[in-house]
C-alpha cells in the first residue's frame, strides 16, 4: 500500500486603500494608548472552507519604542481548531501604481486563539509626511498584500477514493498523457522517448504554438524531435505540467525547470518555480537566486531577493556565492545599492 502526503495552498492578493490618510497622521500623534484602524474582511478558501481575515494598522503610543512608526498585523477572524500556515508580503502602491515592498515575507501559524502576525516597524510617519506626494497620492494610503495560505500536511492511502473535483480541460489532457496512441510528436531525450500531442502543446505554450505554426515539429524526421540539453526528469516534469497543470518534487530540478518554463513561455510554471526558489532562500544561496532571477527576468523574485540580501547583508557578504555575483554580475550589486539607498531616503 502506498501513501500520499500533500499540502493545499491558496494565493490571494488584497488591496486596502485608506482615504484622507493625512488626517490620521495628524490626529493620531502623541497618543497615550495605541489606536488601530481595521481593514474590511477578506476571504481565502482552503479545502472548501472559507477563512476570514483582516488587517489592523496600529498607531503606537508616545511612550512606545515604535512611536515614530505605524505597525501592521494580520488577524484570522474565522473560528476553527485547525492550524493555518501563512506566508505574506506587504507593500504600498505609490503615485505611479508601482508596488513598493517593505521588508521580507512574513510567516505565521494561525489557529483559533492566534495573535496577529505582522511588522512593528511598517511605515515611518515622518517618511510618509516628507514623501506624501509619492507615497500618499490623492491623500490615500494603499496597502497591498500578497498572501499564500498553507493547510496542514495531509497523508492519505493511495486506495482511498479522492473527492470529486470541478471539471476542467486537464481531465482530458491527463488521459492523453497516459495514452500515447494518438500522439503526433515524439521527444527524444537521451535514450528515452516521450510521446506528446501538438494540439496540447499549442494550447499550453506560446513557444510550442510558434513551432507548430512554423511547421518546425512537422519538419522533424517522422515527427521525432531530439533534445540534447535537457535532463530526462526535467522534460518529464515539463510535460506533466503541460498535461495536468500539476508539478511536484521539483526542489532538485527547479533551476532547470525554470529555464524550460521561461524558454517555452509557460507563465504558471514559471511562477511556481519562482515561489519555490524564494521559499528556499538562505544567506548562503540568496546571491545565486538573485543571479537566476535576473537571468530569467523574474522581476518579483528579483526584488524580494534584493530586499532579503539588503536586510541580511553582513552575513551574506562573506559567502562564496556573493563573491561570484560581485565578480561576474556587477550590475546586480549596483541595483542592490540603488534599492538600499532609495529605502534609506524614504526612512
TrEMBL record:
Does the keyword section mention Ribosomal protein? no
Which residues are in the MATH domain? 11-147
The listed locations are:
Nucleus
A Pfam family it matches: BACK_BPM_SPOP
> Which ranges form a coiled coil?
none
Name the family the entry cites.
Belongs to the Tdpoz family.
The protein depicted here goes by the name BTB domain-containing protein
Tell me what organism the protein belongs to. Microctonus hyperodae
